Amino acid sequence: MKNLSRLFLAVALFMSFSAAFAQDKNNPWAITIGTNAVDPYPVGEDAPQGAFLDEYFNLTDHWNIMPAISTVSVGKYLDDGFTFTATGSLNRLTKFGTNLNPDGSEAGTNKVDDLMYYALDGRISYSFMDLIKSKKVDPSLGVGGGYTWVDSVGAGTLNGSLGVTYWFSEKLGINVQSTYKHAFEDYLPKHFQHSAGLVFKFGGTDTDGDGIYDHEDACPEEAGLEIFNGCPDSDNDGIQDSKDDCPNDAGLAEFNGCPDADGDGVMDKDDKCPSVAGLKSLMGCPDADGDGVADNADNCPNEAGPAANNGCPWPDTDGDGVLDKDDKCPNEAGVVANNGCPEVKPTEEVMKTLNEYAKTILFDSGRASFKKETDQVLEAMVAIFKEYPQADFSIEGHTDSVGAKSSNQKLSEKRANAVRDYLIANGISAERLSATGFGEENPIATNKTSKGRKENRRVEVKLKN
Fold first, then answer.
1. Predicted TM-score (pTM) of this structure
2. Stretch 369-376: mean pLDDT
3. Are 287 and 274 in contact (CB under 8 A)?
4. Pick from 111, 108, 89, 59: which is nearest to 181 by CA?
């Protein structure tokens, strides 16, 4: 029997170190059917009982074993590893401790008449399976109470239990348990009750049959994958359908599950050219000449040109550097400053005519205001200026030497600006005209005679380069 006790202990230790499908919220109900043994000996009482836990595994001398099905338990998982279990058991007691010789030595098992044993118990137990990170072994501690009858005499008990379940599968296991029962009445002895039985779990539902129980299944009506909490991934692209913008076409996570067949970084549903790699800026279409116009809209796909001309370069027919669209003279080479037209400057003869007019401009004495008879002269000058819209001119004022030099300088400046202002007021661009006064510095005749001084009081017009 000692060898049998050791074998029992070895099995218990092996089971505690194996790798369960513990009773849990997936299968919250469990039924255990098995047998039990009652041992009133190792409880820390006087003979015929013995010291606490003494000869705990002495099956032959102390255990009252009911070999048939003699215990049935029903358990309900509560939460966080806690389970409530109700147990009914029966047994027949023929051994009650050990007889002693007068010298205190053991004299064999204390035999008793067949005493019927009945018990109804309930306990709250805690599973350590998650704590020890086991896959199959489910050790537990429990505390509870119940009522036990021995030969029709009953009393309440306070119970503490230690057990271990080894799960062969998700719903089937074997349980071994030892319970200490402390009676509240002296006429019912303290005792241990050991049990072993098969455990059957049930109660979990899996509506869609995907192996994930409904309470953990985010999509209980659709068969899905465990990595997506039971939700499907129809196109197998690693993105569950509820988060997949293209659930029936395998795609990329960066595009929320939509494909990019040409690999240009533009998902197919937004790609205007899904079969050929292109640019994001052009909705996935290519731009061979790099002009910013997609090839499918470019009339000159291999030659860079602006979008305004459908991707083709603007022509310059006369080759003057001014594009035809901006060239006022597209068939005649010109200059940029003249909008593509040839630059036309007044000839020396024209300039001579202008200056002949300018010399006849009459001012009021000592002032910059014009005399009435000068109007026709100024109008003739305006007409000539308008014939050469691209030419720039300088208006220069001069005086004789009569009077203070500083006064003459100011007067020459005022008169030059007076002519410029008149021209501007009559349609000549201000940007084309400048005015400068030279006072008495540049005489063209002697200031000693009246005739010479008259010639020196003049306005000249010069063509600017």
1. 0.49
2. 89
3. no
4. 89
